[in-house]
């Protein structure tokens, strides 16, 4: 089955909630105001509660309590608020593609862990919109669920294949594409901003690592996640390829701090969203 068919299957199986579409449209409208954004979110009490819990979580570490959507917008901005809504929506998408071949709780934990590492690295590099890396980290492996749900036997064959390569290398050999590439195209199909889907799509493209900081950060976060959560197989993998090392200025102390941050905070964030 081609990559396009998995993307089509994902599009037919799950669509973004109307609130995501309307919020994106409001943010892109130069005539809209913070009040317009607040009204959209506040119209959904359940979403409002979840967004405020995230705004007050370790994702942001504000010195004072964020008690309203209006304050959340003034403190973190509309784009950050949008990313929180997408992160909360991701949980619903994951459940839509639940399959017996994948432990959904572990998959979700690993996804949030990757998001926490990616956000931490982006913040230390002063990358614009660091909170979007949390969302990208969560969504970069969404398509593994899609593939496993759509083609059970083929995915089982992938799991059973004996190989010593990194996951994305094994995926490329078995499917002809990586899960990150497929996930990125799904996100583009859902009309998410290019700042979210582009780094995901090209996360494992070494040619892009030579010049794109966003892609390098996400790839590095993924490598860290794989090495930390699957130490039996990947504890000794190379985190910094030459291309990544030449593009981002990070050292092992920063990596260790980001790992510590993710290990301390991931379970808390998982409980807030899942």
UniProtKB/TrEMBL annotation:
Upper taxonomic lineage: Bacteria, Pseudomonadati, Pseudomonadota, Gammaproteobacteria, Alteromonadales
Residue span, HDOD domain: 13-206
Leader sequence segment: none
The protein's name: HDOD domain protein
InterPro entries: HDOD (IPR013976), RNase_Y/CdgJ (IPR052340)
SUPFAM superfamilies per record: HD-domain/PDEase-like
Organism name: Alteromonas macleodii (Pseudoalteromonas macleodii)
Alphabetized Pfam families for the sequence: HDOD
């Amino acid at each position: 089955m081609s990559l396009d068919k998995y993307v089509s299957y994902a599009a037919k199986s799950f669509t973004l909630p109307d609130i995501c579409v309307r919020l994106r449209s409001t943010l892109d409208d130069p005539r809209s105001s913070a009040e317009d954004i607040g009204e959209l979110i506040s119209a959904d009490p359940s979403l409002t509660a979840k967004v405020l819990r995230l705004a007050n979580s370790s994702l942001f570490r504000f010195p004072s309590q964020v008690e309203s959507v209006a304050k959340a917008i003034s403190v973190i901005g509309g784009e950050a608020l949008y990313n929180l809504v997408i992160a909360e929506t991701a949980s619903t998408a994951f459940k839509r593609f639940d399959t017996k071949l994948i432990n959904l709780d572990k998959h979700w934990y690993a996804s949030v862990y990757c998001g926490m590492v990616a956000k931490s690295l982006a913040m230390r590099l002063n990358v614009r919109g660091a909170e979007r890396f949390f969302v990208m980290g969560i969504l970069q492996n969404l398509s593994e669920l899609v593939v496993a749900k759509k083609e059970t036997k083929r995915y089982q064959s992938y799991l059973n294949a004996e190989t010593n390569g990194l996951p994305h290398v094994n995926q490329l050999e078995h499917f002809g594409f990586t899960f990150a590439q497929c996930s990125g195209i799904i996100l583009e199909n859902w009309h998410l901003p290019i700042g979210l889907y582009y780094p995901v799509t090209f996360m494992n493209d070494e040619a892009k690592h030579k010049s794109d900081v966003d892609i390098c950060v996400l790839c590095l976060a993924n490598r860290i996640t794989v090495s930390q959560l699957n130490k039996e197989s990947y504890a000794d993998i190379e985190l910094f390829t030459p291309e990544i090392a030449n593009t981002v200025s990070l050292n092992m102390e920063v990596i260790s701090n980001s790992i510590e941050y993710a290990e301390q905070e991931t379970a808390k964030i998982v409980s807030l969203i899942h």
